[in-house]
Sequence to fold (421 residues):
Amino acid sequence: MSTSPRTRTVVSCALLMAALGAGVTACGSDGNPLADKPYDASDQISFSGLPGDGKKADPDKPLEVTAEGDGRITDVTAVDATGRYVAGELAADGSRWHSTAPLAADAHYTVRISTEDEDGAPGRRTLTFDTSKPTTTKRLEVAFGPGAGAFGVGQPITAKLNQEVKDKAQRAVVERALRVDSVPAVTGSWYWVDGKELHYRPRDYWPAHATLQVHSNLDGVRINDRLWGGGAAKPLKLTIGDRIEALTDGATHQMTVYKNGAVIRQIPITTGKPGFETRNGVKVVLEKEPFVRMRSTTVGIAEGTSDSYDLPVYYATRVTWSGEYVHAAPWSVGSQGYANVSHGCTGMSTANAEWFFDIVHPGDIVKVVNTGGHPMEPFGNGFGDWNLDWNKWLTGSALTGGTSAGVVPQQDAERLQPTAV
Fold:
């Protein structure tokens, strides 16, 4: 071991607080910056310069820690009282650490700094401080959907905001604070449908029997000069069931139902006739209704015309808000498996519709091909999220370099009534 004097290394907390623009409320156990000596076998590391004046730090200013002399910083963690960590970056030479994410307002932080001197002797220091309250009363709040419960592998997560966020940098702040954790873990991303709504989905469908936890870290986070994250959002827990997929083929007039990749039923069907073609694409089951009254007037077909109808419909599984269902159609049994005669829905026998109704759940997949209809809308008429490939989906994130976002059709707000048979 060297016997020569070692150069003292100083981790400058004065610079830290200068960067914050205010003092800390405590450093060490009794508020005295030098009361607790850092752990160091040779007592070669010290901290200095923390004012104990009780002021609160400005959450708009970044955290910064610097090492002076021949020592270096090896690790810094900053976490608030709710367990939210502050992202940061440490210089390769260990001379400086700075935060790369905003601090929360009105929060209590604990910062732990690890260092080593030129001979590798370790040093540690813990300091605490509080941040001031935001000066604005405008708060950004978020509500997650679809609600707690069991869903199919195609169910997107939704996040609805009470304030519009347009700027991409501000969207990135919001997006970083919205967390979706799944077991098993999957690759996923948020997509900004518009300034007040985001959807989250994985690259592929959720794994069967996965568990999802959704929560927000927005509380107290600065979005812009006049907007801060509001109260804590209600967290959400979802469980994913078996992988149920229904493939509807308008050319063969058959629906093939899969469970975890295996075919479990082949059903003769009818889809939309010319002029009323069923939408092609991937749809997600929205809800199930044992009985629905379907009337042609809701889609602009006048009463008394050859295409008008007013029918009681049973075992109706809804896949679009504009009125597309999979349902019992006993009046068209003679055409099922042979011709497309409906007004846009997928019709089948009552027995098959009851079986389908019982096996599927919200979030399960209904994919439609070969009908000649328009593509399923990605947003606004149900969950058409899966009709965007993964690269296109990433363009809707503020964190992945994309700039485009989807447009919500007007009918989403109007929630059109059940229409097609």
The mean pLDDT is 82. The chain has three domains: 9-130, 139-240, 244-414. Helices lie at 13-20, 168-177, 350-359, 390-394, 411-414. The longest strand covers residues 72-80.
